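Researcher: Batch entry, complex prediction.
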Amino acid sequence: MSILVVGSVALDDIETPFGRVQGALGGAATYFAAVASLYDRVNLVGVVGTDFPGQHIDFLVERGVDIRGLQIAQGKTFHWAGRYDYDLNTAVTLATDLNVFADFRPALPEDYRASEYVFLANIDPDLQISVLEQVQAPRLIALDTMNYWIEHKREALTEALRRVQVVLVNEAEARQYAGTYSLIEAARAILSLGPQALVVKKGEYGAVLFTNGDLASTYFFAPAYPLERVADPTGAGDSFAGGFVGFLARSGRITPRTIRQAIVHGSVAASFAVEGFSLERIRNVTLEDIHRRYQAFRGFTSFEASCPWLETCERFREVELCDSET
Amino acid sequence: MSILVVGSVALDDIETPFGRVQGALGGAATYFAAVASLYDRVNLVGVVGTDFPGQHIDFLVERGVDIRGLQIAQGKTFHWAGRYDYDLNTAVTLATDLNVFADFRPALPEDYRASEYVFLANIDPDLQISVLEQVQAPRLIALDTMNYWIEHKREALTEALRRVQVVLVNEAEARQYAGTYSLIEAARAILSLGPQALVVKKGEYGAVLFTNGDLASTYFFAPAYPLERVADPTGAGDSFAGGFVGFLARSGRITPRTIRQAIVHGSVAASFAVEGFSLERIRNVTLEDIHRRYQAFRGFTSFEASCPWLETCERFREVELCDSET
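Model: Structure tokens for the complex:
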């Protein structure tokens, strides 16, 4: 299997109540690739300027990321500056300097075209479509987007949504796209375009899966991993996507169960991302670390009989409430 | 078993984007009793004015609620008026007329004193303590509170917290009491006072359980039941408490497992409460209805092997990712 990611590679200035970094490695494609490369081979398509530090390239290469698709253009690397207050759920953007990213036109090296899993990170939906025209027959395409494209490029975004299997967006974006406060209605609207799954990321509140079919039997919810301390929420969503797509690629199967497991992997990956500034923590994470938190997730939501985390109690049936300890 | 609830019985004016009601039955003790009475016998202590409609008394009596502890005082019933906007998570209080509730002094009829499960709904912590001095030896005492008491009666509230087993509050209240943005730190501060469990209600984002011990092995999260439409969030927290305490009383056992199951019952009860204005929907709910949604909850969070909702897949071990369908 191989995974293709197309998106931003950036240098970020980030300030949170717990510290600050300047010119730190960032960008959606970077976070995604750093995580997904733990699971499988990642092909990266993006652009950086001539100011991009060689050590960041080295990090990606060490991680096994194929960077032949990373263009180096004359000029400066995409730069984002943002601040988070104690409510770490929302970033205040202080500066967005597109620089070389303004003229980014994704061009896939020939052997990237056979990539089986594709993640279209948040970029202009016209560019997302141009990527879809360059890939051959991927097994799964997942897409992220943002409020700017929903507002300014709705038509192109809708066309892109029609052509993907999984949509990964946050709560506000799902509501904004569908023009409704009801997340269930929003999910229905997005799924009606063609995608088989909508994963709604809710930050510290976890993530939700919607698929077609009766809600009571298809809905899935994964909490966020409980953390003592969140240092920097930047990249949480893209790290989530990296764990999600990475797990599916590595498992080689796309089923209702593996999609649920992939969401838990996404949630675990995001939990590591936010523990450090920039890619600090992700840099040192292993698949074993991810697996350990994945195992803990089973306990976070188990309340029933048949799950080994809790002792057997089979008597909660037909309004016979559980009254046995064995 | 029998359940004691002490708290407000009110007449509410409520406005949401989906409608409005005036002079409708409300109050924390009412919502709690209406739900908990589905599970077990409920003893209610509260006060209403002479304007309180007899039909509401009839409803409680039909539900099997023992209302000998409901005082009828000269004057008007406690009245609350509030409005919710599309963001149904926060109420804007338009009026709070305490009326007869201002002089409320809980007095337990003699045979209420042996109640085994006690819910101290949100009232002045000094009154909560006075209830604790009237009960004999309950198996479980659960307590709710609100921002007003945290700010103005912190000392009495702390004393009350020391004397209960379960604290049921919302996210903002837990953070406010502990003076920290970290919910985990807040939980630690509250549990250090004595309670064995802290249940944090997060509205549409579900509910979380903290108990003493290693977080990775004790943390529990229950999502909110996914609803097409929320009519009126009033009473969600007290209905949650009704399902929570009701289930524990009926099951007769307080264990890590039954506490988790009780949280799911609370979440289900809250989901019914918010589907109608006032007690409209709760009025017609049966234990069978609750059981049906409880069953669906198993599917909402299952992603593993050993849970029957998903086929068996035992091979996700030691970073061997799941790659088998059988």
